[in-house]
Write a structure and sequence with these properties.
One of its GO terms (molecular function) is kinase activity. Catalyzes the ATP-dependent phosphorylation of 3-oxo-tetronate to 3-oxo-tetronate 4-phosphate. There is one protein chain. With 424 residues, the chain is of the alpha/beta class. Strand 17 and strand 18 form a beta hairpin. The protein has helices spanning 13-25, 59-75, 97-108, 156-161, 173-177, 179-192, 205-210, 242-245, 264-275, 285-289, 294-302, 319-329, 331-351, 362-371, 415-423; strands at residues 6-10, 30-34, 47-51, 80-84, 113-116, 124-127, 130-133, 136-137, 168-171, 197-200, 220-223, 254-259, 279-282, 311-314, 354-360, 376-384, 387-394, 397-406. It folds into two domains: 6-242, Putative sugar-binding, N-terminal domain (Rossmann fold), CATH 3.40.50.10840; 254-423, Four-carbon acid sugar kinase, nucleotide binding domain (Molybdenum Cofactor Biosythetic Enzyme, Chain A, 3-Layer(aba) Sandwich). It contains 15 helices and 18 strands. It binds adenosine-5'-triphosphate and the ligand O=C(O)[C@@H](O)C(=O)CO. Residues 12, 14-15, 18, 86-88, 119, 224-225, 362, 386, 407 line the site of ligand LCNOYBR7.
Length: 424
């Protein structure tokens, strides 16, 4: 069996499918493991993505989990390692991007790597080392209010330098504009100055593809999912191979959406689905806290409706409603109650014959994937930038399950319907 050539470690589940999606677009066949597998890979793939939930856990734990993933990937024979974090560089001075990068560099005996969260398809661009989210600088975007990783500085050289002892520098837009040669020259210069990690400017897919060959010699790359579109070419794979790489078994079963994301994008998607006549059941955290059995109620509600088309079960709410619930029952308690209920509902829906399931929200996805006992997924076609369909093995769905894990911020208003249209 051909060994995977690229080994990836992602710091959350939806981020992992985002990365896998871009590798597939570049022509790679990709398998995603949920957590570090305890057995060797038994199917053919060009790249493997190990999905961790290590973004906001204590840095020492993130390092330990990452190194365990690295050892498993090395045992599968990978030639290059890719550490995937968020395109908004979600982290704090304590980590985890810096400490994990350092630990990987130490373990791989690597004295130079890059750090590039750019993801132009979703409006994340880096210019002169400053990260933009759409037209706003990172620290002026909604990320400044993130509950766990508030991003208050857009200068990534400064942000990363605060997290690592290794010297951080910049491969700036002038070098990137000169393509692979320009970048190679810049790397040589930075190395001579003692720089070991370089932020990379990038504002377009064309740039990411053009400079991809410059990363071929690096044992480790660290990035969002953007640079993935330029990597497959280094292994002789091309965009033209993407249709084959993205092939999944044909879709079967009933269709459902489970949404626990409260982002602006997801609120718009839920509204669009409901106002277009879609059937929806709302989960209220206050009722959950009061002991209502909303899981059973939602499943009873869904049963007669599933045959008519996709059903939506959602806790998605506007910021004021979320805040009100959080004030009454606490942020963590509200989150945990909702996640637990949505995960049980996802499992119940699959037991009722759902074979095509959309899950919205990173934490929600983690909870659903666990409830469905999914350990591995193959990555299929892209629904929207950063969001592919996947085909998962699950003991709850012996014939396999088509599943998509949507990052809160990703997808346009019509995402839910577009997702099912793509499979049909
Ligand atoms: N109505 C609600 N009130 C309070 N908390 C809620 C409500 N609905 C969902 N939640 C919780 O909010 C959190 C949403 O996080 P999640 O990661 O799923 O979405 P996201 O942050 O939009 O996605 P991503 O991490 O991909 O950006 C979950 O813990 C969920 O349980
Ligand atoms: O890079 C991104 O923005 C996403 O893949 C992500 O990591 C969401 O949590």
């Amino acid at each position: 069996m051909k060994k995977p050539i690229l080994g990836c470690i992602a710091d959350d589940f939806t981020g992992a499918t985002d990365l896998a999606n871009n590798l597939v677009r570049g022509g790679m066949r990709v398998v995603q493991a949920i957590g570090v597998p305890n057995a060797p890979l038994d199917e053919e793939a060009d790249a493997v993505v190990v999905a961790l939930k290590s973004r906001t856990i204590p840095a020492a734990e993130a390092v330990a989990q990452t190194l365990q993933a690295l050892r498993w990937l090395q045992a599968q024979g990978v030639q290059q390692v890719y550490f995937k974090y968020c395109s908004t560089f979600d982290s704090t001075p304590a980590g985890n991007i810096g400490p994990v990068t350092e630990a990987l560099m130490n373990a791989l005996g690597c004295d130079f790597t890059i750090a590039c969260p750019a993801f132009p398809d979703n409006g994340r661009t880096v210019f002169k080392g400053y990260l933009f989210v759409g037209d706003e600088l990172l620290h002026e975007s909604g990320m400044r209010n993130h509950p766990l990783t508030p991003m208050t500085d857009s200068n990534l050289v400064r942000v990363l330098q605060a997290q690592t002892k290794r010297k951080v520098g910049l491969i700036d837009y002038r070098s990137v504009a000169r393509g692979t040669e320009g970048v190679r020259e810049r790397i040589a210069k930075l190395r001579s100055e003692g720089v070991q990690v370089a932020i990379v400017d990038a504002t377009s897919n064309a740039e990411l593809v053009a400079v991809g060959p410059a990363w071929a010699d690096l044992k480790l790359v660290t990035a969002g999912s953007g640079i993935a579109i330029g990597l497959p070419q280094n292994f002789g794979l091309r965009e033209g191979d993407a249709a084959t790489a993205a092939r999944l078994p044909s879709a079967q079963g009933l269709r459902a959406i489970v949404s626990g994301s409260c982002s602006v994008a997801t609120n718009g998607q839920v509204l669009s689905f409901l106002s277009g006549g879609g059937a929806g059941f709302a989960i209220d955290p206050l009722q959950l806290a009061a002991g209502a059995d909303l899981v059973q109620q939602a499943l009873d509600w869904a049963k007669p409706r599933l045959a008519q088309g996709p059903v939506l079960v959602y806790a998605t709410a506007e910021p004021a409603a979320v805040k009100a619930a959080q004030q009454k029952i606490g942020v963590e308690q509200a989150g945990a109650l909702v996640e637990h209920a949505l995960a049980a509902i996802a499992r119940g829906l699959v037991e009722q014959g759902v074979g095509q399931l959309v899950v919205a929200g990173g934490e929600t996805s983690g909870a659903c994937v666990q409830a469905l006992e999914i350990s591995r997924m193959r990555i299929g076609p892209q629904i929207a930038p950063g969001v592919p369909w996947c085909h998962a093995r699950s003991p709850v769905a012996p014939g396999g399950l088509h599943l998509t894990l949507k990052s809160g911020n990703f997808g346009g208003p019509g995402f839910f319907r577009e997702a099912f249209e793509l499979l049909a």
